[in-house]
Write a structure and sequence with these properties.
Shape of chain A: globular
Strand content of chain C: 5-15%
Radius of gyration of chain C: 21 Å
Largest interface: A-C, 24 and 23 residues
Order of helices and strands of chain A: HHHHHHHHHHHHHHHHHHHHH
Oligomer: heterotrimer
Number of helices of chain C: 13
Distance between the termini of chain C: 50 Å
CATH class of chain C: Alpha Beta
Number of helices of chain A: 21
Order of helices and strands of chain C: HHHEHHEHEHHHHEHEHH
Number of domains of chain A: 3
Structural class of chain A: mainly alpha
CATH superfamily of chain C: SGNH hydrolase
Mean pLDDT of chain A: 89
Helix content of chain C: 40-55%
Low-confidence stretches of chain C: none
Shape of chain C: globular
Number of strands of chain A: 0
Chains: A mainly alpha (528), B mainly alpha (76), C alpha/beta (321)
């Protein structure tokens, strides 16, 4: 059962909504938990044990940390100011121990399921290069669905408790629902306990308005997936598989299509996730904010997969850059070269950590590691050269705030993103670099003309994709201007509204790339 | 407060700090600039800014940054 | 209350719109006679009357292994697959009965595995999917919008290009475990497998139906390492002898020379396109050698089959994954 499937949208979700509305208010949150576990069980069967283990571990560890904090506060009230510091330090070490052990426990699962095989492969490579007669046996296993997502949520819960940003919750079921909540468990957004805890446990009745809005959003997600993403997938699959047979422009188009596909698929999933939550009156923060209007790579990552970027910022970037080790390391530089340079180096160290982990989070493989460092380098270069660019612009009287300048920036960023996603999609580095090489060296307009219509899409497919993208772009531009489209539509007369919804539904049925003649596509982000 | 505005202007001159209320959300201060800012503040006002306090709400306006500094100074 | 009424009206409106569009899109050579829903459920009814000479009836093994278009291209014979997942004998009987409403086939191949399928164990999922296709035929034919509005009313334009076959190129090689179990199951024994009564009864009805309509019935057991066994083989053989039928068991000595490392889509359960080419060729040869049907190549009444073959080839290329 995927979020895009008929079984989810027209069977599972309606049943949950119906049951949810019929049970008493107190049981409603419990029903959500049961539905979430059923959803998880359908996908991952027995592996649900690991989800439950993670939930219980952070629940118990949270309570332990809470106890330590309480005890500290009690003692601290009765001592002099001088003693305070050492006592604080003592308790800090205590709660740190709980924190670290629990994080290690959770990350160990993640490592086992997602990275052990890759780790073994790397070791085997080293063994064979160094002439050691030793090979570690690789094994095959499925990971619990969404483990990369819920583990990050688990860590965020615990660190926030540790930092006294939130209080550990006394109700184990609530913590379990936080990790397992069925719309977000598989592909995010990575929510924060503080943002959702009240709503998921409120047990509000499903309102007609929310139901309509929720399903509208779900339909929009289906539109993106079936009409655009699945159609482009046909073209993308062939270009990446047989890249040696195609000329530069065709491959470039394949890479561009892949980025569009990824965006449509992933943001479409988010439409379904957020729409589903909306039905239960649970607000989940947006995970995308018109990423293709970004002026640089760092901005792109604050608009694309936002919850992941924020997670890395809060739990990796600042803690690393402001850690004692890094501060000591840069304090000398600070004295010699000043604040700007030292901050840059602090930032660079933290960015390196962030992008190493970000690459690996996306997958255990060399392409993902390169994908991470590619962004690391681009962001770092952007920061180093920004002062120079400002100066050059000033000298030449270029207005950096003009629309023209911004457009150039957006185009530049988008091209860089295309390249990054090409690396992301390629099955291995040989293909990634091979494709890039061909794109820049095998430029042939005639080759493109003969190839473009042999890759599974005919003229009518291209027209449909184009029209659908125009719709998406218009909606994106409206959103960028903070116009709430659904609110706007809901004020229009009923004939107009229904015509619009009918058109959307019919467009999905008619122009969706599904059924005979189209192979089903696996969800891209669900494997993480 | 005056000193703080000076620091801010040094780091990012394109903003009117008296009125701007979305320094982080409007992307006037990116994460590297915030790192510089934190170093400057820690030196100038002799405070330690813990990572927990680095949230947009605390850095979205000059006033809120100032409030944070005052709060940290009190806690010392 | 108002909201409930609104919702119902909205859904009703949608049903009407979908039906109108369905009417425009689904193959409609025989719609007038059999109605849209029936034509959509039994795809063979959409074919021109009395054009199909051979029908293959059965379960998923059939639509994975026999591609009528390949047979048309190489031999000029008109074959049609009437098959759905986990089909049992009562459904086979029903399919044949419906098919001969508009067709008069000379030969029917009957996949034998369905004989042993426990009738009560019918998966609800299949049932649900079939019902969905029945009420929303557009799911199978939505892509016909490409042919353009002008052609919607032209009966020759919306043709079925797969004739019941389901095209899959995915390769999932057979595992050692399956291989071992299969070798074990295929050891010679003398005890046959039990056939559920319901299946046996409907099988007898099928025999009667074929005899009445002068159709040659041939038992086949298509390559399949997951459910076939030698005890099933001898049971079918017994039945075939009793009713004087021919029985081709592709599983004995791997007649088709299937490469189970490459030509299966699910570790030995079903054939993929590569395997289907071999199985289809065998059927074509069989029809030719036994002089059971005639070639309709270059026959003006069958130009739509040539068109279908062109579209079929296009489609294969598009989905060559």
């Amino acid at each position: 059962m995927t979020y895009f499937g008929i079984r989810y949208v027209f069977l599972f979700l309606p049943i949950v909504v119906l049951l949810y509305n019929f049970v008493p208010k107190k049981i409603k949150p419990l029903l959500l938990l049961i539905a979430s576990y059923v959803f998880f069980y359908i996908k991952s069967k027995k592996l649900i044990v690991f989800l439950i283990l993670s939930s219980l571990s952070i629940y118990l560890a949270g309570l332990m940390i809470k106890k330590i904090i309480h005890k500290r506060d009690e003692i601290i009230r009765e001592v002099t100011k001088e003693e305070k510091k050492s006592i604080k330090e003592k308790f800090k070490n205590k709660k740190k121990l709980v924190l670290v052990l629990t994080i290690v426990f959770n990350v160990a699962f993640l490592f086992y399921f997602k990275y052990l095989n890759f780790f073994f492969k790397v070791l085997n490579g080293i063994f064979s290069v160094s002439g050691l007669d030793m090979t570690l046996k690789l094994f095959k296993h499925l990971a619990p669905i969404g483990i990369s997502f819920y583990t990050l949520q688990a860590i965020s819960y615990l660190v926030d408790v540790y930092n006294e940003k939130i209080e550990a919750d006394e109700n184990p079921l609530k913590v379990m629902l936080y990790l397992a909540f069925f719309p977000t468990v598989m592909e995010g957004p990575i929510t924060r306990f503080n943002d959702v805890k009240d709503k998921i446990w409120a047990g509000c009745k499903v309102k007609y308005q929310n139901l309509c809005f929720g399903y509208q959003r779900i339909m929009f997600g289906l539109f993106k997936k079936y009409v655009i993403a699945d159609r482009l997938n046909i073209f993308v699959k062939l270009t990446f598989k047989h890249y040696m047979d195609y000329s530069g422009i065709t491959l470039a188009l394949g890479a561009i299509f892949y980025t569009i596909l990824l965006y449509m698929e992933f943001s479409g999933t988010m439409d379904i996730v957020i729409g589903t939550a909306e039905i239960f009156d649970i607000k989940i923060k947006e995970n995308f904010k018109q990423p293709f209007l970004s002026k640089n790579i760092s901005e792109f990552w604050s608009r694309w997969h936002i919850s992941l970027g924020l997670w890395f910022k809060d739990y990796i970037f600042y803690p690393v850059s402001l850690s004692k080790g890094v501060k000591n390391l840069t304090s000398n530089i600070r004295k010699k070269w000043g604040n700007k340079v030292s901050s840059l180096i602090m930032g660079a160290i933290a960015l390196f950590a962030v992008w190493s982990l970000n690459g690996l989070w996306h997958g255990a493989g060399y392409t993902f590691i390169v994908f991470g460092y590619y962004h690391f380098i681009l962001i770092l270069l952007g920061n180093i050269f920004e002062p120079t660019i400002v100066k050059v612009c000033e000298k030449n009287n270029i207005d950096r705030k003009s629309g023209f300048y911004k457009t150039i920036q957006i185009i530049k960023t988008t091209i860089l993103v295309f390249i990054g996603e090409l690396i992301f999609r390629a099955p291995n580095l040989t293909v990634a670099f091979g494709m890039l090489k061909r794109i820049f060296t095998k430029f042939s307009l005639n080759g493109f003309k003969t190839e473009v219509l042999t890759l599974g899409l005919d003229i009518s497919d291209f027209i449909i994709v184009l029209l659908a993208l125009v719709v998406i772009i218009i909606i994106s531009l409206l959103r960028e201007k903070d116009i709430n489209i659904r609110e706007k539509i809901s004020t229009k007369p009923i004939v107009f509204r229904w015509a619009l919804f009918y058109a959307l539904i019919i467009a999905i049925i008619l122009f969706g790339a599904f059924g005979p003649g189209y192979a089903p596509v696996d969800p891209i982000y669900a494997d993480f | 407060m005056k000193k703080l505005i000076e620091i801010l202007e040094e780091l990012q001159p394109d903003v009117d700090y008296e009125t701007c209320e979305d320094l982080v959300d409007g992307r006037y201060l990116d994460s590297l600039t915030i790192l510089s800012l934190i170093s400057e503040i820690e030196e100038e006002f002799d405070v330690q800014i813990p990572t927990v306090e680095i949230v947009p709400a605390n850095f979205n306006s000059a006033a809120s940054i100032w409030a944070l500094i005052e709060k940290l100074q009190e806690e010392m | 209350m108002k909201n409930v009424v609104k919702t119902i009206l909205f859904v009703l409106g949608l049903v009407v719109i979908i039906n109108v569009i369905s009417f425009l899109l689904i193959p409609k050579q025989n719609i007038k006679k059999y109605g849209m829903l029936k034509t959509a459920k039994y795809e063979i009814l959409a074919e021109k009357e009395n054009t199909i000479d051979t029908i293959v009836v059965g379960d998923s093994l059939v639509y994975s292994a026999i591609s009528p278009m390949e047979i048309w291209h190489n031999y000029g014979y008109t074959v049609y697959d009437c098959a759905s997942p986990a089909q049992v004998m009562s459904e086979n009987y029903n399919d044949i009965k419906v098919a001969i409403e508009s067709q008069s086939p000379n030969v029917i191949f009957l996949e034998a595995d369905g004989l042993f399928r426990n009738v009560r164990k019918q998966k609800w999922k299949n049932y649900y999917k079939r019902q969905l296709e029945y009420f929303a035929p557009i799911i199978n034919y939505h892509n016909n919008w490409k042919k353009g509005i002008v052609n919607f009313l032209d009966s020759d334009s919306n043709i079925n290009i797969y004739k019941g076959y389901k095209y899959i190129t995915k390769v999932k090689p057979v595992t050692k475990k399956v291989q071992k179990k299969y070798t074990n199951e295929m050891k010679h024994t003398t005890t046959g497998e039990n056939i559920p009564d319901d299946n046996l009864n409907y099988f007898k009805k099928i025999i009667a139906l074929c005899n009445k309509n002068n159709i040659k019935l041939v038992f086949i057991s298509l390559p399949n390492m997951k459910t076939w066994s030698y005890s099933k083989h001898i049971e079918v053989e017994k039945l075939a002898k009793e009713y004087n039928l021919e029985f081709i068991d592709f599983n004995i000595d791997n007649v088709l020379n299937i490469d189970w490392k490459k030509e299966t889509k699910d570790k030995g359960g079903h054939l993929n396109y590569g395997g289907a080419l071999k199985a289809s060729k065998f059927i074509g040869e069989y029809l030719k050698n036994n002089n059971l049907v005639v070639s309709h190549k270059n026959d003006d009444d069958y130009t739509s089959w040539d068109k279908a073959y062109m579209a079929y080839k296009e489609d294969l290329k598009k989905n060559n994954n």
